[in-house]
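Researcher: Here's the sequence for the chain we discussed earlier.
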Amino acid sequence: MKKSTLIGALLIIGFLAIGAMGWVKSLTPYVSIAEAKKSPTTVQAKGALLKDTISFDKEGALNFYIRDDSTGERLKVAYDGAKPGNLEQASHVVAVGTYHDGAFRADRLIVKCPSKYQGTTSGGN
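Model: Thanks. This is the structure I predict for it:
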């Protein structure tokens, strides 16, 4: 095998390995609220939005609680980004981040709103 072919093959393998490691790092598992409180890594926690808990702290961070539908356990979520426009209409929120200092520090929020088509029936003639 030529030296240039070998170097090219090693470069391709190296780039594939770097890409694979980046892809694996980007995977963020869904966990329960109890697991989110224990996880040292970034996770996704989903829960029912407790709308009456939505507030802003003195630093301007958005704070609210979500509740696990199956266990009823609550999780305080703190988010420094812009408040999603449809937060008040949300039924559930997926918070992506890590838990520390008594709150789940979200880097990203995914708002789950009820479908506008939910409960409609088609009226055929």
